[in-house]
Specification:
Helices cover about 25% and strands about 20% of the residues. By secondary structure, the protein is of the alpha+beta class.
Length: about 130
């Protein structure tokens, strides 16, 4: 979510398009973590959200750490897991690469969730490759 002085629970993360994997990957530079599945594959924000909703395995991990015991890593990072799952109920995207409330903000949320947001987008809109 974009930074807001009115919401102390917002958290900003970055996603990059990995050409070799042909997908988005989330990096949490605040916590120095990225997220992986049970095989150690890096995950996007939407993949993390879906795995959390379906109670499938995913865990944050620090860059450079061994992927040998992912279950133990998940157990040790349970507070990060719960925090990110809470924040992924709905996801906000800035119109431009800026911070603040003056910019147009798009929201991705569950289909049946009531809202009064002005700009709601689809999952497809945030899954596309940036490469044209």
């Amino acid at each position: 979510m974009p930074y807001s002085p009115y919401d102390g629970e917002c958290h900003v993360v970055n996603e990059i398009w990995d050409i070799s994997l042909n997908k988005w990957i989330m990096f949490d530079i605040t916590h120095n973590q990225y997220w992986v599945d049970e095989k150690g594959n890096p995950l996007s924000i939407l993949e993390i959200r879906q795995k959390g909703a379906l109670q499938e395995f995913c865990t944050p991990i620090e860059p450079g750490k061994s992927l040998d015991d992912l279950q133990k890593i998940k157990e040790n990072n349970m507070s990060s897991f719960i925090y990110i799952m809470k924040n992924l109920v709905y996801i906000e995207y800035c119109d431009n690469n800026t911070v603040g409330e003056s910019e147009r903000i798009y929201v991705l949320m569950p289909e049946r969730m009531e809202n009064n947001f002005r700009y709601v987008i689809s999952e497809k809109a945030v899954q596309c490759s940036p490469i044209v």
